[in-house]
Amino acid sequence: MSRRSGDVIPLRAAARVWFAISLQTFGGPAGQIAVMQRVLVEETRWIGQQRFLFALAYCTLLPGPEAQQLATYVGWLLNGVRGALVAGVLFVLPGVVALLVLSGVYVTYGETTVVQALFLGLAPAVIAIVAQAVVRVARRALLHPALVALAVASFGALALLAVPFPLVVAGAAAAGWVLGRVLPGVGEPPARPAGSGPAPLIADDALHSEPPGARRSATVLGVGLVLWAAPVAAAALLLGPSSILVDQGLFFSGAALVTFGGAYAVLAYVAQQAVEVYGWLAPGEMVRGLALAETTPGPLVMVVQFVAFVGAYRAPGPLDPWVAAVLAALLTTWVTFVPCFLFILLGAPYVERLRGNRALASALAGITAAVVGVIAHLGLYFALHTLFGATEVVARGPLSLEVPLLDSVRWPAVVVALLAAVLVLRLGWSVLRVLGVCAAVGLVLGLTVGVG
Questions:
Q1: d(C-alpha 118, C-alpha 98), whole Å
Q2: pTM > 0.85: yes or no
């Protein structure tokens, strides 16, 4: 019988684990999912592998950062609404603080040699973390040759055909549903697949659940919408509807609804609007903001906090520039992540009720397979723009591929990436330990041979 109230595990113990996870969430969704996989499935064994993948597949369907939503979902399964709030808030809190500080350093000091040298060590290390995530998720999700083919097809659709991410997900869901009918059981891996580790300590039917209903849904939706809109309405009342805080609140509220595929998917749209329409950033500064977001814990979509901070600092209106910048950064963070909690708390009870549906299980198995291809594509994108200074697009008919210009290779970054690969993939070092070593190596290389 499902547990409908109370904590599956003590909330204090869960909070400690979520805080520890939050300090390791480097490397975008791939690295973040890998951290949660290791801690929640393999170390604490609070949730089973297939339940974890089911939750991941659902979160992949939603706009917004899927890793943060996955943490919120698992927090809900372990401790209900309180657990969802604790897990979701702690997942982003270190990144908010770190990026707030780095944004302040950026507008005050600009580009410094020491900061760039640290980035030289951290950014290539993330490539190895992403590679580890691809291997781990693939090993546990691609348990049938048809799912392997689907993962490869998803990668190809993104890398060679530039198919929009939502269409990849929709196609993967349809393909999974068809596979489920042609090959019954394709979405139902064996109870103990190879490499799955020990069974979870908490059985699936002991996890938290709530009966879905119109009254509950209306309450969650009403409270969520009020909380989402309240800071923007307050800014409009206190500072006027033409305030930069209102412009940013409205813009990033809309952006939060179209961020399918994470930060990279929405990056071009935000950059174009921030530079050409609103003038919050100068050309090229979006890339610097993304670099800062890459080297801080938390979702990469936190780059919007950098955009808001810099834009408000430069056009503060009647406010002190620092006050405007901090308020803008916090407001943007709020309107970006409140919808994430709303989507999970509103939809989780309905999704849990459908968990035993074979058609849904097959469709989600297809989506999970596609996630492997998506993560691999993000890893490729990050490697291209970290290890090389320039790229070009090679087109042949309907196919196009972004390739590096070999004469633009950044050898110090290559050295750090190879070191990180050995530490992560060969020696099995922890993420924080690898990042610490690579940051030190990057600092030495950056101050001696340069950061180019």
A1: 14
A2: no
